[in-house]
Amino acid sequence: MEISQIIAGLPSNIFIILMVLAGIVIFLVLIIYIIKYLMENAPFAYVNARVRSMESRLLDSQKLDKLIESGDIVEVIDILEDTDYGAYITTSNDALLIEKSLDMYLAHVYKVLSDISPGKSKKILKLFEKKYDVQNIKTILRAKHVGMDAESIFGLLIPLGTIPENKLRELCEVKTVDEIMNGLEGTKYSKILSEELATYEQTGRLMSLELALDKYILESLWQSANMEGTNEDIFREFIGTMVDVENLKIILRSKVDGISSDNVLKYVLKAGYELPQWKLKELAESESIEGVISSLEGTKYGTLISEHLEDYERVKSVYVFERALNAYIVKVGKNLSLRQPFGIGPIIGLLTSKEQEIRNLKMIIKGKIEGLPSNEIRELITI
């Protein structure tokens, strides 16, 4: 007997009771969903208010145009005086010093957001602070490589992360990579550097050390983002896209530098988001930039990269692809902010926009110090 016949055979009062019960069940499920959503997102009310306030102070295209068209670095600093960067940046012709000022501001933004964010989101944002551990270690490695003195090196470091300030100062005093590795004993960073030491000694290049450190940060973020819950799903999508983008940057650079696929695969994170392990292997084994683009067909990155092939052939620099990938991360951040306007979405949107803004400022400042014309500076930034 069909269900429709069974229902038709029921007394009308029983049918009405069943309909009412079904309505109550649906209503309760809906209420439970709403309560769960509110419980997850209510703690973000204050955070999101702060985020919206900070978003309102992002530099608009008019302000960026003014910076690009400014006469020199002094005028750039003057324009930035009435922005959030004014308290951090000072007039100087030292690009490294100005870059540190901008990095200090970004570190402040990360710290503020991690301090005021609730629950698991706070833990994940705290992991982002480890980026400054890696940035500081890379700065020390590079500075030692070119023979800078300890005091100058320490002046370039960002006092944020898990490595204490006194330990950073000690690391600035040592002479070799071996000694830096020993100075980090007891941390994950020492093991990472020791595993790549032989490659560094063989090649004399810091790239293997730096790529291994970058990979560790991505692994940490990816592992922490794989949690249950709405806000964590948003984080997983964001960090997964970051993983794909960083993997692509490494693979694209390897094609220009002539690095073998085996070496490339050591430094990509194999837990790709849209780009699974087999696809990463295929991309790494491609013989050229054009081969990478061909292999990316059917993915969201295929069109994104191929659209900039003509620019790459003109300037012969993978920077054109990296700029496009950075812009894509910002776009993803903004989309996630719109998709979840009352949770972690706005934090992601703000952080991606801030990082892009600071990249643009660094390019503008470097261009002004080097005397580049405005049209060339404009080609280097993303608006």
Automatic annotation (TrEMBL):
GO terms for cellular component: plasma membrane; proton-transporting V-type ATPase, V0 domain. Gene3D superfamilies: ATP synthase (C/AC39) subunit, domain 3, V-type ATP synthase subunit C domain. One of its GO terms (biological process) is proton motive force-driven plasma membrane ATP synthesis. GO terms for molecular function: ATP binding; proton-transporting ATP synthase activity, rotational mechanism; proton-transporting ATPase activity, rotational mechanism. The keyword Protein biosynthesis does not apply. The chain crosses the membrane at residues 14-35. It holds the Pfam family vATP-synt_AC39. It is a peripheral membrane protein. Keywords: ATP synthesis, Cell membrane, Hydrogen ion transport, Ion transport, Membrane, Transmembrane, Transmembrane helix, Transport. InterPro entries: ATPase_csu/dsu_sf, ATPase_V0-cplx_csu, ATPase_V0-cplx_csu/dsu, V-ATPase_V0D/AC39_subunit, V-type_ATPase_csu/dsu, V-type_ATPase_csu/dsu_dom_3. It is found in: Cell membrane. It comes from the Archaea. Component of the A-type ATP synthase that produces ATP from ADP in the presence of a proton gradient across the membrane. Has multiple subunits with at least A(3), B(3), C, D, E, F, H, I and proteolipid K(x). NCBIfam families: AhaC (TIGR02923), PRK01198.1-3 (NF002267). Belongs to the V-ATPase V0D/AC39 subunit family. This is A-type ATP synthase subunit C. The lineage of its organism: Archaea, Methanobacteriati, Methanobacteriota, Methanomada group, Methanococci.
